[in-house]
Design goal:
The complex is a heterodimer. By secondary structure, chain A is of the alpha/beta class. Chain A is built from 29 helices and 28 strands. Chain B is α+β, with helices and mostly antiparallel strands. Chain B has a single domain, classed as Alpha-Beta Plaits, CATH 3.30.70.20. The chains are: A alpha/beta, B alpha+beta.
């Protein structure tokens, strides 16, 4: 076994580059593309200017050399057949025909953008130009920068992503409650990690509707949980309709019906208060609204919640007791509660439980990151609205309909209002789209066939990506090729440490997203980019570093010398003034306390306390529908091989995960006569798709879970196939246009479905043909909020 | 030189596939070929009512314990990249002591 000393020497700790036999080794940090939410320390082994392979950097304490399967297959990703090399254009009348793309120069691409910007602006106004952004990676701040500051339009959206149903719902809840964003503490806020003097391992880790081992959500490496289990004896509480690896090792595991999370969380709060297990000192000194909250949960007995959630009330009690009495509790969250109309309230209830047990900013609890996402800057991107005037901002879609947007909760527009605009022209026609880092009809947009139809109404669509996708094949008029992570200079500001990574390779005519920001900015708004002194990607990144609260270095210093900056972050900052802009003790909320009863929600006419609501479709809310569709469908569980719609083209990933799979309980499968491994139709009220049945004990009876993000790069790219994007697309079943009352969260993870075997007779019209040639599965409909505002009948 | 082996704590292996992929990359194996292969049992509720959900990666005949890496002092690619840090490489006699310290573990002699 090698010693640490040998590792530092072997891997040239502190050096940017060295020679190792036939390879030049370059130290860096992988982020995007290919994407994920983390940014591991990397050693890129280069030969003749090309990547030969990559390894994890053993000298970087974030991952200590560890690396996931996707980054261990970077060479196959980088030099794949379908990778884009040059800008390409296609006449909008030829959408759906991949043979009609024509190589052009970057100058020609810019001229084409200018021509369409001018035409759309003249006919409809500049606010009819909009941007679409995908999930949180190193491709978030760039789109608002381009659309706001280069194109001078206020309209950027998560790509037809009903209810902004990832991260934003929980950010909204926690920002309103705590003025910050809680992140489970596994020592990652200090470079010494588990050896940081004040660090304590969590007594309990609460894993709610997530599998962090696979998802590594949001600046959190899942394997830190196994570190804590091994090194610190941390116990697990796992709440999930499925049995995952952690459930099998949990002190308490509860399988609940999808969408009932808020009810279960309210009951846990009930137990903790009723049995007097709460942290009296913390509640007295640092929270607001405890009496109202205690009164509110009084009726939420475990029996009441268990009946709703199809679980055992005693398990709710056991879980609540362990959370309250076993030392600090850290709670890593995934996206599942974001993807429910009741999601903001579910998070509110769960985070209130963390508050009444004193689990904020404590070692082994939950660190309050310095602002929601650290990243209003680098993630949701509202950090610098640059050129937008109040008049321009007034044309952003969604502010009028959703009060939280009007006060700055998300700097982006509201995607359900965008869908309505595309379908009806109200509140304004939306005609030109700039997509970067998103592949909406494959992955992000619920009711994908409807999203496809809506996006087909556009006059002009630009898509930036690194390979041919269904979205490009079906919808793009101009395609811009994107550099991989090591083909760009780039910066990671998301929480800590700040990381900079150098460009060490060039692939044909690809450009980085950062270079495209600067190119478009200098072309369409040179006055502004002159004013901030941005002429190159390096200038742009230097501007960001100098604006960031968590770094003081210049970008050059970071890029060419330090590589990362990981300052100590002491605990209990609410006692020392570290959490408030005015430097006073307390939290960055109107009352200075953690608000169990949220005054901002009350001021905006929203519910100040978390209330449980049934999903729009459920055994309880739509019993007649439930007779026809007797299974509760959830989707979006992660796996090791893929990040959303990425990696499907890589043979090494398909070797261990060849086909889309729907998990169905052994008893349900027996009743339906379905065998493990056979193709089945999954059908709901909006549409249907085909996946392979995975018959398993590891999901509760009455519930099925289906893969997301599937397409087939090996199939025909032309319409109506579009690489088979609609055939297995679970978003043929999920709803759009029906977000929750806070505007955040929609029912991706709790709709009704039925499952039956695929036969030649019932497979004559496949979903691709239905979508592309037959106008889709159904006419547009809208939930109560959009309907009320625009005078439709609510569904 | 004493014989080397691979130690794996299968209580902590959560099946991330990094060992498979690291090996594949190191040995330039085509898709579908493995120098180490993950095996899985579960999820299954056993007769006692406990959940079984266990992974064990098993070295194949293609495993050479990364002789060219270990000659320079590096770890085998699978051990280097293992996400749960449940794999160790070393002298079999030394690794055998770990078997006593860590229940639910195995030692592979190749």
């Amino acid at each position: 076994m090698v010693t640490d000393h040998n590792l530092d020497e072997l891997y040239h700790k502190g050096e940017l580059t060295w020679q190792d036999g036939e390879y030049t080794v370059e130290r860096g940090f992988q982020w995007t593309p290919p994407g994920c939410h983390n940014s591991c320390g990397m050693l890129y082994y280069m030969k003749d200017g090309k990547l030969d392979h990559a390894e994890g950097d053993p000298c970087f304490p974030y991952n200590n050399g560890r690396l996931c399967a996707r980054c261990l297959n970077l060479e196959e990703a980088a030099y794949q057949e379908g990778r884009l090399k040059y800008p390409m254009k296609r006449d909008p009348k030829d959408r759906g025909d991949v043979s009609k793309f024509e190589r052009i120069t970057w100058d020609e691409a810019l001229a084409l953008i200018e021509k369409n910007l001018d035409e759309v602006t003249e006919k409809y106004g500049r606010a009819s130009v909009f941007g679409l952004v995908g999930t949180g990676r190193n491709i978030c701040w760039q789109v608002p920068w381009i659309v706001n500051n280069a194109f001078k339009s206020p309209n950027v959206f998560c790509a037809l992503f009903s209810g902004d149903s990832c991260a934003v719902p929980r950010t909204a809840a926690t920002a309103a409650m705590t003025g910050a964003y809680p992140v489970p503490d596994m020592g990652q806020f200090n470079e010494a990690r588990y050896d940081y003097p004040d660090f304590q391992f969590p007594g309990t880790i609460l894993i709610w509707g997530a599998n962090p081992l696979k998802s590594n959500a949001d600046c959190f490496q899942g394997y830190w949980i196994t570190d804590c289990m091994k090194k610190g004896g941390s116990k697990l509480v796992v709440i999930d309709p499925m049995i995952n690896w952690m459930s099998a090792r949990a002190e308490v595991q509860i399988q609940i019906r999808p969408g009932t999370d808020c009810a279960v969380a309210l009951a846990m709060n009930h137990v903790i208060i009723e049995e007097d297990l709460y942290d009296h000192d913390f509640v007295d000194c640092w929270t607001y609204g405890f009496d109202e909250f205690a009164e509110h949960v009084k009726d939420w007995t475990p029996e009441r919640a268990a009946e709703i959630a199809w679980c055992d009330p005693d398990d709710i009690r056991k879980a609540a007791r362990l959370i309250a009495t076993n030392g600090p509790c850290a709670a890593p969250f995934g996206v599942s509660n974001d993807q429910k109309r009741n999601g903001v309230s579910a998070y509110h209830a769960i985070f209130n439980m963390m508050a009444i047990t004193g689990n904020y900013d404590n070692p082994g609890g939950n660190i309050l990151a310095y602002d929601p996402w650290g990243t209003v800057m680098s993630y949701i991107a509202g950090w610098d609205e640059g050129v937008l005037t109040p008049e321009m901002k007034a044309e952003r879609l969604g502010d009028k309909e959703f009060p939280l947007h009007s006060v700055g909760f998300s700097a982006l527009g509201q995607p359900d209002v965008l869908l309505h605009a595309l379908e009806t022209g109200e509140p304004r026609p939306m005609k030109m789209c700039f997509m970067m880092g998103t592949n909406p009809i494959t992955n992000m947009a619920p009711d994908a066939p409807r999203a496809y139809k809506a996006l087909m109404t556009l006059d002009f669509t630009i898509v930036c990506d690194y390979r041919m996708t269904p979205t490009i094949a079906g919808l793009a008029d101009l395609v811009l090729p994107i550099s991989f992570n090591w083909e760009r200079n780039t910066l990671r500001l998301w929480f800590t440490p700040v990381r900079a990574s150098r460009k060490i390779s060039q692939y044909y005519e690809c450009k980085s997203d950062e270079e495209i920001v600067v190119m478009l900015g200098r072309r369409f708004n040179p006055e502004f980019f002159d004013k901030i002194g941005v002429h190159t990607d390096i200038d742009m990144l230097d501007y960001i570093v100098k604006s960031a609260p968590n770094a003081t270095e210049s970008f050059d210093q970071l890029l060419n010398k330090d590589m990362y900056c990981w300052p100590d972050r002491p605990y209990y900052q609410y006692k020392t003034g570290g959490l408030r802009a005015d430097g006073q003790p307390g939290f960055q909320t109107p009352t200075g306390r953690i608000e169990l009863w949220v005054s901002m929600f009350a001021n905006l006419g929203l519910d100040p306390l978390p209330n449980y609501e049934e999903p729009t479709e459920s055994p309880v809310s739509t019993p007649e529908l439930y007779k026809e569709y007797p299974l509760v469908l959830t989707t979006g569980a992660r796996n090791f091989e893929f990040f959303h719609s990425e990696q499907r083209e890589q043979p090494h990933m398909r070797a261990t995960y060849p086909w889309p799979r729907v998990r169905i309980n052994v008893e349900d499968a027996k009743e339906l006569g379905i065998q493990d491994g056979e193709w089945v139709w999954i059908e709901g009220t909006r549409g249907r798709c085909q996946q392979k049945a995975l018959v398993t004990e590891g999901i509760m009876k009455g519930v099925v879970e289906a893969d997301h993000g599937w397409w087939f790069p090996e199939r025909d790219g032309n319409a109506p196939s579009l690489y088979g994007v609609f055939e297995s697309n679970i978003n043929n079943l999920t709803p759009n246009g029906n977000p929750g009352p806070y505007s955040f969260g929609a029912d991706f993870r709790s709709v009704l479905c039925k499952i039956y075997k695929c036969t030649p007779e019932n497979s004559e019209i496949l979903p691709g043909v239905q979508t592309v040639e037959k106008g889709g599965f159904h006419e547009p409909d809208y939930g109560d909020i959009i309907s009320m505002y625009y005078g439709h009948d609510a569904k | 030189m004493s014989k080397k082996g691979l130690f794996i704590n299968y209580e902590m292996c959560f099946g991330c596939h990094s060992c498979e992929m690291a090996c594949s990359q190191e040995h330039k194996l085509p898709a579908g070929e493995f120098g180490i292969k993950l095996t899985q049992y579960g999820p299954h509720k056993n007769v006692k009512g406990d959940w079984e959900y266990t992974f064990v990666p098993v070295p194949t005949q293609l495993c050479d314990l990364c002789g060219s890496r270990t000659a320079t002092g590096k770890l085998p690619a699978c051990v280097h990249h293992c996400e749960s840090e449940c794999m160790e490489y070393g002298d079999i006699a030394e690794l055998a002591k770990l078997l006593e310290e860590q229940p639910k573990s195995v030692l592979f002699s190749l």
